[in-house]
Every structure is written in structure tokens, then in C-alpha cells.
Specification:
- The protein is of the alpha+beta class and about 160 residues long.
- It has a single domain, classed as Aminopeptidase, CATH 3.40.630.30.
- Helix content is about 30%, strand content about 30%.
- The chain has 5 helices and 7 strands; from the N terminus they run βαααβββαβαββ.
- The protein has a 7-stranded mixed beta sheet with strand order 1-2-3-4-5-7-6, with helices on both faces.
- The radius of gyration is 15 Å and the shape is globular.
- The protein starts with 15 loop residues before the first strand and ends with a strand.
Length: about 160
Amino acid sequence: MGRPGALTVDRGPPGVALRAARDDDVALVRSWRNDPDAVRFSTSRRPVSELDHGRWFSAALVDPRVRLWVAEERGIPVGQVRLNLDGDAGVFSIAVAPAARGRGVGQQMLRIALAEVERDHLVAIVTAVTHPDNSASMRAFERVGFRRRGRSADGFIVFELRLG
């Protein structure tokens, strides 16, 4: 399927754009992943080591089943969006930089990523799981069209969106 290219800002609200993650984003993405709020709301509920994250990140960059984008606002990184592909379905995950939270950046990132997914016909259905106390994440997914579909075995809220 190829790696995603830069997405233009006209696919989403002004000021936010997505670009394909690069090797030199590894530390930045890990810092967002290990932010205390991100850890609290993660499925593992623990920080990830530099070694483990580096291995995962390198593999994700070359895996044709993974799309990993870094969001930028006026050229400043403000978060990341990941889509794991599995046949006709995909699973979204997002992380917003602590300094960018509370401004709707997560929602903007999702809108742009969804436009790319639909344009390239990558999957027919996308899902996401969110910690039940992460109201900002739940709002972002709901505002772009995801619907609650229940809970996972470990108590996370499962969201789903059927495309096209």
C-alpha cells in the first residue's frame, strides 16, 4: 500500500497537517506516549522503555499494515495518529502533545487521517478503544463520527466508524 505522504492542511481545519512519521520522530513520539496522562489512559498503564519503543517504532515505519503520522500545527509537532490495518478493518490510536491539549487538536488529527483512509480506500471500518475516564479522547472520536459499541474485556470503551 505504500507509506503515507504529507497531507495538506486543506483536508482539515486550518493550521493542522499530518505527515508520515520519520526515524527522527522516535524520541518525540515516545515522550508523548510516556506523558503521565497518556500512561494513565493507556491499555498497559505503564511507560514504555526507550529500547522497546525504538524497536516498535522502527518496525512500525516499515510495516505495510501500519500508518503512522505526526501532526503539525504551523510546523510544530502536536501529536501522532496511528492506524493499524487488519484486512478490511483498522484500529486508530492518537496521542496529543501535552502543550496542545484542550484545543481540539485530536479531533482535527482524526478528521485529516480519516480523509486519507477514505481517499485511499484502506479499510471499510475503523475502531478505537479509549479509557473510560478519558473524556477528551471520547469526545474527539465521537465528534468525527465514531459510535460507542460497548466495552473491551479490560473495561475500555470501544468505538466504531463505518466508512464510505
